[in-house]
Every structure is written in structure tokens, then in C-alpha cells.
Specification:
With about 900 residues, this protein is an alpha+beta fold. The protein has four domains: about 260 residues, PAS domain (Beta-Lactamase, 2-Layer Sandwich); about 100 residues, Beta-Lactamase (2-Layer Sandwich); about 250 residues, PPM-type phosphatase domain (Phosphatase 2c, domain 1); about 120 residues, Histidine kinase-like ATPase, C-terminal domain (Heat Shock Protein 90). The protein is built from 18 helices and 31 strands. The radius of gyration is 46 Å and the shape is flat.
Length: about 900
């Protein structure tokens, strides 16, 4: 024991020594790394100073080069020459050079003879007020070949020569940097003046720094600030003579970098560089907090490593000490092992009997050797009776015995089994013959006497029922979600749009979809239709679709209330742009996008205006001519920020039709795996819109052609058909087109509509009742007896009022229907259960017709009327 205690102390001391050494090394590393970080930051600041200084020098040198290039033009023109040509040359010198404000030629008296800004012509400029004094005469010897160098003056106030230097620098809002080139030639003498734009340097600074935590300043050698990057707010002309560059380095050094007081008085890492040949200095500064934060981060990582290492060392020390202490316990453990083995059998028996699951153990021959209390309760056999019996005769149902025996034989022969060491659900048999579901696990156990098999069985009937109830609840929740989605995302098409008929259909690929449709009536002759498709499927896509619809409503309201739209509605491009600004940041964060087409139909001016954003392109079918597509102008919303939206227009005349749809139609797969595709869609639309007069018939005929009931949708589906009526005479003669579900619940709606319009047409009370009864009879017959119906296709109820008659049409997809001929006379008392449908329809009609055209049935009932009352509104 003494030896072991000594080893334990040695382990502790060794761990302490390692921990202290690690801490010392970590501190040394932090000190070294701090110096490296500081030097790297200084090098970065110096590198930016050099790069910006080179940019400044190139701009100023380019300006001098422009002035020198103009000298031959001045010599050629002479003092009395055509200054129009010189003005043109100055304008050419300015073109494409954003760093210049103007170029001007001044004669010896300071009068502007020529200028890139023609408003400057004739001005007399006192250059002395911006600090220019030649010191020497501009007249040089003709034999002296050296041109006079241009001079860069201090920054001055003003936009151009007219207001140059008139305002004190500290109060000036616009500044310029003058460069003057004296020119003395045998024929001309004067000054070329270039006004540089300091804002150009500020913009270049911001671009070069590119969001780096740096600020850049351009300073004259007189210590006055010329311009700075946008993150420094000292005004131009401020004195910066307090900087170390002036009182410590200049003029001995043209560049340097150090940690010193910055231009705003704070401690910074700074670097400056003087522009060769020009009285300019570029200064770049970075707050010392930037590199201090980097040092702190490095220190935090190092300390985290040290703490982690200390924890590992401490853990290792504790484990090692415990290992030494465990050695002395091992002998005691060996002594207790035998007693534990004896107790194991007792515990096993106790566990076996107390288990809530049925446990049955069989030998290799399939005979029961263990049968616990839970097994007795589950199967109805006493353990004494079950032991020694074949398990298949006790609890295996008759229809599974052959399969059980075959599996046992396969395992004994090949050593393979599909049920061992896995959890399966299977049927078991009670002593009374009842068969019920159980969860079964069989584990093979190797013993000295041979291989045994222990089966654990659990009654899963309290669970199957729960799963069924949970599935029913999920289905109910999904149905509620579908109803909410249909009411929120799919707008009901209005029935009384002047000059238009609209029909729509939506179908989700996963119960709830992300397609959406919005129809906004924005005037008596104008309607906006928004079709969209959100990336993804299911509830998440539906939520995003609802949010997009809500954003359209919000954006339209905001645009209408803004100034600038008092005289008209916002355009589709303006509305889509507003929605894009509001939603794209969130869509980029969610890595989602929305395709849509915003369509505006103006029946007064016969125009359709659209903005397409990655959606399936709308198909336009003119009344005469070939169909065309309305091309997308933009990618989906959420793909690119700051998109500039535009819209296009085309004519929409009488009889023209539009077909809008989502990619669920083109991506649908036939049973042979073939995709529908745009070509088939275009052919079907062309064929069906030509063939059928109502939008519902055309739309669902296209759906029946392209999407047989057994075909699979790969994505959510939305389809919209818009037909422009051939004649638009306005209420009350404008026909009413209402789509009703194929359900007896819609009978009440049929009755309300026919009652309203028959009364409006001036029919007598008896005529009204009979006509309503006839229309209800036709609708009920379709609902109950029609064959070949397409799921989701409605019955279109169309009312054509006129001054002489009222015509009602009921249109639906289905097999052709030929009505039986009604008997000449009928005994009403002989048919108490009904049977008078045909007789009622004939009695209510002045003209009755049954028509069938390419899968579309039309029942037309006409009734002559004596008068037509105006002023009634058509019910929606």
C-alpha cells in the first residue's frame, strides 16, 4: 500500500509540472503572436496606402497629360484663331473622365477663351484668390525646349470656374482641386486650367477599401484635408498638422507606418505615402481596436486550448489514480465473483417472472422450457402445462405454423434466419383460439447444453388502435389544412367581370400546395390576375404562398396611398418591384424563391399587361391567328437582389383567350414515364379553346387530355382560362357564368340564381317557379346520373338575359346523354315518388336542347319573357 501511495503522489506532481509548463508556453505564444498580428496589420495598412497613392498619382498624372496634349492645339489655333475647335478639343478631353469637372483655356488677362463648359466662356478669373501666383513669368525663351510643369493647387470651393474660391472652404458644399498649366508659345500665352473632382477620389477610396475596417484620407502637403473615404466625417480643408506624418517624418521620409494618434484623435495604426511630383499625401488609418480584437481572439483560443489541456491532464490524473486504487480492490472483487454468479440465477428468475412482456424460451427442437407469468396472462396457459410442449402448437396461429416450422428448419440447416435478432410484428394465438397482433423479438443463446431461443412478445392491440386514431387525426388535420389553403391561396373567380369569363383549377401534389392565385378587380374595366408557385411542397410552401399573397395586398395598398399615384393605379411592374423589395431578403435567408406572373387585363383599352418572373409562360390564343406565349422578363423572386422590373403589353381583342398555368402541368408524368411538356400543353390549349365556348369546359377538357386520373403529379398544379367575350354590351344583358361543384349541396345556389334572373326578366310567379324547378331538375340529374365525370370539374351555369328571352345553360364534362322522349300525357297520381323530370323541363321551356361536343355536354333551356327590368345587380 505504501508503494502505491507513492506512485499516486508522483502522478499528481508530474501533472502539475506539465500544466504549469503548458501555461508558460501559452503566454509566450500569445506575446509572440501579438507582435506578428500588429506587424501584419501595419503591413496591410501600408499596402493600402501605397495602392491608393498609386491611384491618386495616376489620376493627377493623367490630368497633366491631358493638359500637355492640348498645347499643340493651342499653338495651331493662335491668339486670333477659331476657338470653337479648341472648345471641342476641351470637351473631348473631358469626355469619359469622371475625375474632371472642366477644362478651360485662359488668356494672360484671366479671361476664359475656351472651356468644356460653355457657360464659362467670357468669364474673367482671378486665380490669385485660390492661391495661384506664378512666381515667374509665364513667358519662357523660345529656345528652351522644356515645357512648364503643371501646378496642383490647394483644394478650393465651387463647382466650376464661375464660383471658384468664392465661398470659404469650411462652408463650401462642393469642392474642386485645381491644376494649372502655364503655356507660353510664340503665338499664345495663358493658362490651361483643369478642375479635378475630389468626390471621385472618395469613391475610389470606398471601392478600394471594399468594406475593410480602414479609412483613407487625401491630404495636401500644407496639412489641409482634401478628401476622405465615406467613413471619416471631418470637413475638407481641416488642418491635420497634428499628425505624426508632419511633425515626425516629413520631409525626411516620403512614407512610413506606425501606431500613433489618428486624424480623429484616437489611437490608430496608420501609414502614409507622399505622391511623387505632386504636393499630395495619402493616409490610411485603422483603429487599434481591430488588431486588439484579433489579439484577444487569439488569446481566447489559446486559453481555451490550455483549459482543455488542463482538463484532460486532470482527468488523466484522476483516472490513473483510480486505476491504482482499483488494483487493490481486484482481489476483493474476485472473491465476490463466485457469490455474484450464484445470485445471478436468482435474479434472472426474478426478472423473468416480473417482466411485463411475455418471455418464452424454447430449445432447438421447438419445445418450451421457460414460460413466465406475463406469458401465462397473455396466452391463457399455465407455465406447468406449457413447459415441454411444442411452441407452434401453443401460440402460433394455424395459418402460420408451416412458415414457422420452415424457418426453424432453414436456420438449423443453413444458419440463416429473417426474424432472429430483429423486432417484427406478427400474429399470435390465445388458448381460446383468438388471434391477435404481437411485437416479437427472438434472440438465440448459446449454452453448454446447446442453443436456446428466447422470444419476447408484447401485445400491440392499446398501440394499433392508437396508431389508427393518430392517422385519422392526421388526415383530419390535413383536410382542414387543405380547406384553409384553398380559401387563402386560391381566390374564387368572380362571375360578373364585364366582358370576361374566368375559370380556374388547382390541385395539390401533397395535400397542401404552394401554388397561389389572386384575382383583384381594380375597376369596372380592369382586373389583375396573379399566379404564383413557391419552391417546395406541403405546409411550408403553403405558408410561404399565403405570405406572398398577403405581401401583394400590402404592397398595392402602400403604393396606392403613396404620393405620385393620385392620378392612376400602380403598374404591374411597380407592384412586383415593391413585393420583391419586401420579400427577397427573407427569401434569400430561407434559400427559397417564388415564380409568378402578374397579368392586368384592361377591357376598355383592349390591352393585356404582364410581368413574368420565372413562371410558366402564359399562352395567348387570338380569335384569329396562331397562339403565342407571353415571355418572362425576369428570374423568380428571391434569386437576385435589386432587380429592376419591366412590363410588356399586347392587344386582347374580342374572342381572344389566355391560358395561365404552373409547372405542375408540364412536369406531370404519364404512366409510361413520359413528361407532358410545353409542346403538348400548347397543342391541347389550342385545340380545346377553339372547340369550347365556356372557360370551365375548355380548362377541364385540357386537364382531361393531358392528365388522366391515374397519372402522377410531380408538383402542385394551377390552371386558369380567361376568355374575352365577343360582345360586351354591359349589364344587365351581360351573361352570367357561375361554376358550381358537382354536389347536391349546390342545388340551393342554382335555385337562388334562377329565381333572381327569372324575376329580373319579368316572368310571372308561376313561370319563375317552373323554370327554377326545371333547372334544379337538370342540375340534380347531372349530379346523380351523369357518367364519365372528371373529378374536380364543375358544372357551369350560364344565364343569358335579353329583352326577348331568358336562356339558361348547364355545361359539364362527361359522356353523351340522350334524354328519353317524355310521354304525351302523364298521370301524376300514379307516380307518388316522382318521375316527372323530363315533363317538368319541357313544360318550363319554350326551347330545349341537349348538345354534346367532344366530351362536353350542354343543356340549354330558353324562356320567352315580356319585359326586362334594369337596375338589378347580378349576384356573385
Amino acid at each position: 500500500m505504501v508503494l502505491r501511495s507513492s506512485r499516486s503522489r508522483q502522478i499528481v506532481w508530474l501533472a502539475l509540472l506539465i500544466a504549469v509548463s503548458l501555461g508558460v508556453l501559452a503566454g509566450s505564444f500569445i506575446v509572440f503572436e501579438s507582435g506578428e498580428i500588429r506587424q501584419n496589420r501595419l503591413n496591410t495598412v501600408a499596402l493600402h496606402a501605397r495602392g491608393l497613392n498609386d491611384q491618386i498619382a495616376s489620376v493627377v498624372d493623367a490630368t497633366e497629360g491631358i493638359l500637355n496634349s492640348l498645347k499643340p492645339v493651342i499653338e495651331h489655333i493662335g491668339p486670333s484663331g477659331n476657338h470653337v475647335r479648341l472648345t471641342s478639343s476641351l470637351e473631348d478631353g473631358l469626355r469619359g473622365r469622371p475625375f474632371l469637372r472642366s477644362l478651360s483655356w485662359l488668356d494672360e488677362s484671366g479671361r476664359v477663351v475656351a472651356s468644356s463648359n460653355r457657360e464659362n466662356l467670357g468669364l474673367v478669373i482671378n486665380l490669385a484668390r485660390i492661391g495661384f501666383s506664378e512666381g515667374v513669368s509665364t513667358k519662357t525663351s523660345v529656345t528652351d525646349p522644356r515645357p512648364a510643369r503643371a501646378r496642383l493647387l490647394s483644394i478650393a470651393s465651387g463647382r466650376d470656374l464661375a464660383d471658384l474660391g468664392l465661398t470659404p472652404i469650411e462652408r463650401a458644399r462642393i469642392l474642386v482641386l485645381p491644376m494649372i498649366q502655364p503655356i507660353q508659345t510664340p503665338t499664345s500665352a495663358g493658362h490651361l486650367v483643369a478642375l479635378l473632382n475630389p468626390d471621385y477620389f472618395s469613391t475610389q477610396f470606398d471601392r478600394a477599401l471594399d468594406n475593410e475596417p480602414l479609412r483613407a484620407l487625401l491630404v495636401g502637403l500644407d496639412g489641409r484635408l482634401i478628401v476622405s473615404s465615406s467613413n471619416f466625417d471631418r470637413p475638407a480643408g481641416s488642418s491635420l498638422l497634428n499628425l505624426a506624418a508632419f511633425h515626425k517624418h516629413l520631409p525626411a521620409h516620403e512614407f512610413a507606418s506606425e501606431i500613433s494618434e489618428g486624424a480623429d484623435g484616437s489611437q490608430v495604426l496608420s501609414a502614409f505615402r507622399v505622391t511623387r511630383d505632386w504636393p499630395l499625401m495619402t493616409l490610411v488609418e485603422q483603429s487599434d481596436e481591430v488588431y486588439l480584437d484579433e489579439i484577444r481572439l487569439t488569446a481566447a483560443w489559446v486559453m481555451a486550448f490550455v483549459l482543455t489541456s488542463w482538463i484532460i491532464i486532470a482527468s488523466g490524473t484522476i483516472v490513473s489514480r483510480r486505476a491504482l486504487l482499483n488494483d487493490e480492490r481486484s482481489s476483493l472483487d474476485l472473491a465476490l465473483a463466485h457469490a455474484a454468479t450464484q445470485a445471478s440465477e436468482s435474479r434472472k428468475l426474478a426478472i423473468l417472472q416480473s417482466s411485463l412482456d411475455a418471455i418464452v424460451t424454447i430449445d432447438g427442437a421447438g419445445r418450451v422450457i421457460e414460460f413466465n407469468r406475463a406469458a401465462e396472462s397473455l396466452f391463457g396457459y399455465a407455465a406447468d402445462y406449457a413447459q415441454g410442449k411444442a411452441m407452434d402448437a401453443l401460440i402460433v396461429p394455424h395459418h402460420l405454423r408451416a412458415q414457422h416450422l420452415e424457418g426453424m428448419a432453414r436456420y438449423q440447416t443453413l444458419g440463416t434466419s429473417r426474424v432472429l435478432n430483429s423486432r417484427i410484428e406478427i400474429e399470435a394465438r390465445h388458448a381460446d383460439g383468438t388471434v391477435f397482433p404481437v411485437e416479437l423479438t427472438i434472440v438465440p443463446i448459446q449454452t453448454e447444453t446447446g442453443e436456446l431461443f428466447t422470444a419476447t412478445l408484447r401485445d400491440i392491440r392499446a398501440r394499433r388502435q392508437a396508431e389508427e386514431e393518430l392517422g385519422a387525426a392526421s388526415r383530419r388535420e390535413l383536410q382542414i389544412g387543405v380547406q384553409i389553403q384553398q380559401s387563402l391561396l386560391m381566390t374564387t373567380t368572380p362571375a360578373d367581370l364585364a366582358g370576361l369569363r374566368i375559370s380556374s383549377h388547382s390541385q395539390a401534389s401533397k395535400g397542401i400546395d404552394g401554388d397561389f392565385l389572386e384575382i383583384i378587380r381594380i375597376g369596372p374595366h380592369c382586373v389583375d390576375i396573379i399566379t404564383g408557385d413557391v419552391m417546395g411542397k406541403g405546409l411550408a410552401a403553403a405558408l410561404m404562398g399565403a405570405a406572398t399573397k398577403m405581401q401583394f395586398s400590402r404592397s398595392i395598398a402602400e403604393l396606392v396611398t403613396q404620393s405620385g399615384h393620385d392620378q392612376g393605379l400602380p403598374t404591374p411592374a411597380e407592384i412586383v418591384a415593391a413585393v420583391d423589395r419586401a420579400m427577397t431578403p427573407a427569401l434569400l435567408t430561407l434559400e427559397a424563391f417564388v415564380t409568378l406572373c402578374y397579368t392586368r387585363i384592361d377591357t376598355e383599352h383592349n390591352l393585356v399587361t404582364w410581368v413574368g418572373c420565372g413562371h410558366e409562360e402564359t399562352i395567348l390564343l387570338p380569335a384569329s391567328g396562331q397562339l403565342r406565349t407571353l415571355a418572362n422578363q425576369h428570374p423568380p423572386l428571391g434569386v437576385l437582389p435589386h432587380t429592376r422590373f419591366r412590363q410588356d403589353q399586347c392587344a386582347l381583342g374580342a374572342g381572344d383567350a389566355l391560358f395561365l398555368y404552373s409547372d405542375g402541368l408540364t412536369d406531370a408524368l404519364h404512366t409510361d414515364g413520359d413528361r407532358v411538356g410545353r409542346r403538348r400543353v400548347a397543342d391541347a390549349v389550342f385545340d380545346r379553346l377553339r372547340a369550347h365556348a365556356t372557360p370551365a369546359a375548355a380548362l377541364h377538357a385540357v386537364r382531361r387530355d393531358l392528365l388522366p386520373e391515374h397519372d402522377a403529379l410531380q408538383d402542385d398544379l394551377t390552371m386558369v382560362v380567361i376568355q374575352r367575350l365577343v360582345e360586351d354590351t354591359g349589364p344587365p344583358r351581360n351573361p352570367l357564368n357561375v361554376e358550381l361543384p358537382v354536389s347536391l349541396q349546390a342545388v340551393r345556389r342554382v335555385r337562388e340564381l334562377i329565381d333572381h334572373h327569372s324575376q329580373d326578366a319579368g316572368l310571372s310567379e308561376d313561370e319563375q317557379g317552373l323554370l327554377t324547378l326545371a333547372c334544379v331538375e337538370v342540375f340534380t340529374n347531372i349530379t346523380r346520373h351523369a357518367t364519365g365525370l372528371l373529378s374536380g370539374a364543375p358544372i357551369a351555369l350560364i344565364v343569358h338575359p335579353s329583352s326577348s328571352q331568358l336562356t339558361v345553360e348547364l355545361v359539364h364534362l362527361g359522356d353523351a346523354f340522350a334524354p328519353e322522349e317524355a310521354p304525351a300525357s302523364m298521370d301524376f297520381a300514379a307516380y307518388p315518388e316522382g318521375g316527372f323530370g323530363i315533363q317538368i323541363i319541357l313544360a318550363a321551356s319554350d326551347d330545349l336542347a341537349y348538345q354534346h361536343h367532344r366530351g362536353v355536354n350542354t343543356v340549354r333551356i330558353s324562356k320567352r319573357c315580356n319585359r326586362f327590368q334594369s337596375g338589378h345587380t347580378l349576384p356573385a
